[in-house]
Amino acid sequence: MPVVISFVSTKGGVGKTTVAANLGGLLAAFGLKVLAIDADVQPSLSKFFPVHYRSSQGLTAVVTSGGNPSADCISRTIFSNLDLVYSDTPDAALQAWLNRREDRLMILRRAMRSPLVAPYDVVLIDTQGAVGELQKSAAMAADVMVSPVRPDALSASEFATGTIGMLDELNRLADFGESFRSGDLLALINAHERTTNARALAAVLRQRFVGHAKVRVLHTVIPSAAAYAAAATARIPVHDFDRRRRFGNSAWNVMHGLAWELFPSLANVYAGAPQCSTGDTGTGGVQQGAVA
Ligand SMILES: Nc1ncnc2c1ncn2[C@@H]1O[C@H](COP(=O)(O)OP(=O)(O)OP(=O)(O)O)[C@@H](O)[C@H]1O
Ligand SMILES: [Mg+2]
User: Apex CA 126: angle with CA 55 and CA 206, to 5°?
Assistant: First the structure.
């Protein structure tokens, strides 16, 4: 079964889509077979990379099939090994559909065990920056959640109350049985400015979750850098955009560090040269590390 990582936060604009897309691009460049699922009703991940094959259906079919999609739901990006389920729900229809289903929190988890998803090594699910049934379903589908946090007072406070509140709410379901327990939540400090204030907030965040049963702050810190927006504009993974600049904080180094922290079995694996093709040459198999 693939390793499933969902990108969640109850705050918008913290970097979920940026990190999901770039991690997906890097893992695919390692040779892993990656499926990126855009579970945000505002389809940002769907547009992040160019698509060379667009399937007839997307997220709606995955969800409304009850998590066992048989239809043509998988699009292919121009990058080898990187496929996409695009978001096709511009309105609140899918949330409303989910609200009527008693099993709504388990639907995407069921989809992760479906034959459609089985061929992938890693699935990355991007969500919207607000609490909703779709986001909760994506959270419950994950082996681990990654929650980018900007080191400013508002973001840190929203993380500590909103996002952790959502995690606590989900885990109350565990009263009904262990299979209802969510994965752990990994906070990822993103867009870190080199200021005393940012450093202090990052330190407070780390301190606050030491010894927490379900929450951990990742060692990797993504600095604030123009490369992330520039690579998104160029529609290429940021490690590739920054390929020639292998100094300490370059996106090349930082994204490799993040991938290695999440998947220690990939430590010292480097992205190969970019390959654009119809691609489906996954190597198969990745051991869980931080995601275990
Ligand atoms: N490390 C970074 N350095 C500089 N800019 C960044 C960084 N990470 C993200 N950004 C920028 O921040 C903006 C918001 O990022 P992104 O869209 O990924 O956030 P999001 O959490 O997915 O937002 P939403 O909740 O609206 O889906 C984008 O313009 C992106 O380019
Ligand atoms: Mg987003």
Answer: 160
pLDDT of residue 129: 86
- Test site for ligand 1: of 18, 147, 236, most ligand atoms within 8 A of the Cβ: 18
Q: pLDDT tens across 218-243, in order?
A: 999 999 999 999 999 999 999 999 98
User: Which ligand 1 atom lies nearest to the CA of residue 229?
Assistant: 31
User: How wide is the angle at C-alpha 206 spanned by C-alphas 126 and 245, nearest 5°?
Assistant: 65
Does the Cβ of 229 fall within 6 Å of ligand 1? yes
Which domains are present in the chain? Answer: 3-266 (3.40.50.300)
pLDDT tens by residue, 252-288: 999 999 999 999 999 999 998 888 765 444 444 444 4
* pLDDT value at residue 176: 74
pLDDT value of residue 35: 98
Q: Which residue of 228, 238, 249, 258 sits with most ligand 1 atoms within 8 Å of its CB, as the best mutation to test the pocket?
A: 228
Q: Whole-angstrom Cα distance, residue 289 to residue 83?
A: 23
CB 187 within 8 A of CB 262: no
